[in-house]
Amino acid sequence: MRIIAADSGGALLDERFEPTHVVCTVAVLVEPPYRYPPALLPEPAFCPADDSYPLLVRELELCRLLLESHEADVIHFDMSLRGIRLDELEMSELARLPERVRVKLMRIVPKLTFIASEMWASKGVPAIAIGKESVPVRIAELSCAAHAVLFSAEKALEEGRRLLLGLPTSCTVISSGSTLIARSLLPAEHDLMGFAKDEHGIMASVELKEALNPIARGFRMVEIRPKVS
Amino acid sequence: MRIIAADSGGALLDERFEPTHVVCTVAVLVEPPYRYPPALLPEPAFCPADDSYPLLVRELELCRLLLESHEADVIHFDMSLRGIRLDELEMSELARLPERVRVKLMRIVPKLTFIASEMWASKGVPAIAIGKESVPVRIAELSCAAHAVLFSAEKALEEGRRLLLGLPTSCTVISSGSTLIARSLLPAEHDLMGFAKDEHGIMASVELKEALNPIARGFRMVEIRPKVS
Amino acid sequence: MRIIAADSGGALLDERFEPTHVVCTVAVLVEPPYRYPPALLPEPAFCPADDSYPLLVRELELCRLLLESHEADVIHFDMSLRGIRLDELEMSELARLPERVRVKLMRIVPKLTFIASEMWASKGVPAIAIGKESVPVRIAELSCAAHAVLFSAEKALEEGRRLLLGLPTSCTVISSGSTLIARSLLPAEHDLMGFAKDEHGIMASVELKEALNPIARGFRMVEIRPKVS
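The joint structure predicted for all components is written out below.
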């Protein structure tokens, strides 16, 4: 089965380790044995962390874009609603969610069902709200981790200052030649990976220091500092 | 302490990775340091996944059988009811469970209390509903993983076709000589193991390919294919 | 950021693997990259496991003691109440907790707010109820694991008998020269550590055997036995 999935992630942190901005969105194509993405579509976001719901729409748009150049059997969307189809999603499905979440979701649901219906009509590919149970969504999350380091390094260089980046849950990123590799640290996911290509040699100009986020167990963070030449 | 436990597991998957049949039941004897089973009693099941409650009765029967040839201090049963004794289990204990589960359990509870009472009367060994907190139950689950690969390989050869087997949560199986070894991938369980003996050299005639189940994070699956000679 | 945290842990187990006594309390100082404690303050407790709430007060007192000799920006307290400040803690915050827990907490809350207020007034350092989300609290827990082995070994020698020690969740302890090292076995915590110094060479006189606690998955235990000379 060929699966397209997307996720947003990586968070710039303030000095109290609280997230201020979500760094990027990445769509991925995943094939058996479902370990890494042979194709992906990344995009920087730097979207305020307290208003990041529009990124869900962007995730589905990037899935649609990737679907234009690659065949797939299904789209895995990062919303955990028992795997129901997004084009058949009704507002009543959201009834059980907490008030605060529901109000924000209601604003974007019409856009999600519209894009999902379009992909179903034109390509015959359904998008399902499978969320955290999906391995391709996790691979998209790992790919966000790798791209978040790349995009944040770029930003740190442009602004000539140190940035603190919170990684997605339970993963670590290493920079190896022209590739950034994000690996899962979760049990039974030791062979999952996400990638980012450092095509402009940005990583050579920054220093990385990974540490644990002291106020959020399971989350690691990377301090990114322009190299003094 | 010598503990006997049992579990059922391994699931044949359809091409959408949904379980169709539960593959086997295994009872195990476990002794300090509680890492692997010095004695076990496996049995193929291939029971429909949507009607697998009768396997719970079979689990307790296999425990009783194993108890006939091996001494033990307690039976750990894979039902999570705060460790209450199965021979003292009353229907009212099930009140908090969801309707759907309760109805199915009510049909088998009389059989469970009967078998448990019998073991208590004849051997003085209590059976407790400790469920997922029990390490011996996990070792039974790992032993199911190993036997599920063996029994599914046998079936794949008989039927001359490829089978897709879903493993129990967070474990991996390797075939080494005449033994199949299942290891836990969960934190703090790196030294737990289950085994299956391949006495008829079945594994030499099949090819195994392990991958992640893309729609169920934490679960791995094995593609089993008869070797082309 | 410099963080002081404390925890109590390690549990003597009876022969049915049930906890009878909590072994010790340890306060730690943690600095970037938040992996191990450069300073710590341990204390044996051997407090009955069914009445261990007074240890929470002792944890905060040890934090205060450590704060007298070391600078810190914040105190992480092992109570999970969304990170609210202990000096501003009101009884109404406990309303959502289960009856049994609330009654016991209510007796110690006045003491906790008193100590927290004092630290805030004299040093300007707030104590927050961040609990299990805190990496420094986990490092304190690992340091309890290491000291629990040391203090239990001492007790086993004094009393000339075998003791069974339950370790905190998902960790393992090794004795290496004059140091006991506790490592986390949880995902994304592979680089966390706690320590204990064996200044009187106690570990040379005991034998350790680590096993899994068969009735509590994720928890390991250590059998400590005086060496026969």
